Amino acid sequence: MRSSRPKPLHRLCGRPMILHVLDALAELPVHKVVVVVGHRGDWVTKTLVDHAPRSLAIEFVEQSTQLGTGDALAVGLTALPDGLVDADGDVVVLPGDTPLVRPPTLAALVRHHRTSGAAATLLTAVLPDPTGYDRVVRGKDDAVVRVVEAADVREDDAFVDEVATTIHCFRHAVLAPALRRLRPVVRTGEHCLTGIYAVLHDAGYGVESLVVGDPMEAAGVNDRAQLAVADAELRDRINERWMRRGVTMWDPENTYIDANASLEADVVLLPGVVIQGECTLGAGAEIGPDCHIVDSAVGAGAKVTKSTVVRAEIGDDARVGPFAVLGPGAHVGEGVVVAPFSQLGADFPALD
CATH assignment of 246-344, given 3.40.190.10, 3.50.30.40, 3.20.20.70, 2.160.10.10? Predict the structure, then answer.
C-alpha cells in the first residue's frame, strides 16, 4: 500500500515543506546548511538547488539506509569537518517537516544554549494533552535527564506535560562521540536522536531545554490532517503579513495566498480569492470575488471579477470578467476590457 504520510516536499502554501524550514534559517547568521537526503534524494536535491534561499550555503549528503534520526545526524556531520566548525561551535538540528518554526525561536534556542554553556539544548513544548508525544524527564536542579519516546511512556512518566520537539542545538565537539554511544531501539533497530540526552547527561555534560511559547511552531507534519492544520496556520500568517503591508482583504478566512506571491500596497482582495504560485499583483489591483489566479501578473489598478487566470498577463487598469477564463499565454493590454464569459489564451481560443 502506498504511504500517505506527507514528505518534506509536500507543498504548504505553494512551497515544499522543507523550503519553509530553510526560509527560517535564511534569516539567521548560519554558516552552512547540510541536508541529509534518502528516498528520492535526487528529486529533493534538485528542488532545493532550484528554489532554496540563495543566501544559504547548502551541501547534500545521502543516508543510504534509513537507520533513524541519530544515524541521519551522524551522516550529516560528515559534511562538517573539524576545520569548518571550531570546538565551541554549535550545530542546530531541524527536521524537514516542521514548517511553522519561526526565526526568532531558533535564535532564542541558540542564545539560551550558549548562555547556559550546555552541551545540548532541546526545544520543548508544554501541552495540555501530551498523549502520543515524547516526554522530557528532569532530575536534580531541573536538569534534563532523558527523553522518553512516546511508545515507551510508562505510568511514572505519563503525568509529564513537557514534550520533546525534533529541534535541537548541540555543541559540535560532543556530537560525534555521543552519537557513537547511541544504542538502537530494540523494537525498531533504529538509532533515535532522543537517546543522546541520556548519553550526555550520564557522561556529566550539562543538558538544557527551552520551552517554545507557541507549540504550533514545533509541530511536525506526520499525516494529511496535520498537513491541513499546518497549511491553515501558515496561510493565516501570510494573510496577516500582507494586510500589515497595506493589502486589503474583505474576508481573510476565505482568501488564499501562496508563499511565492508578491503583492503591492493597496491591492484589494474580495472573498473567495485564490492566489496560487508565482503571482504578482500591482498596486491598487482589485481581485474577486471568487477568482483563481495562477502564476500570472496583474497590473496596477486592474480589476478581475469572478474569473480564472492561468499563466497569463493583465495590464494596468484592465478589466476582466465576470466569468472570463484567461489561459496560458493570454495577454490583456493596458486599459483593455475583457467581456464576461470570454476565453483567451493558448489553451482557450478567443470566442468570435
Answer: 2.160.10.10
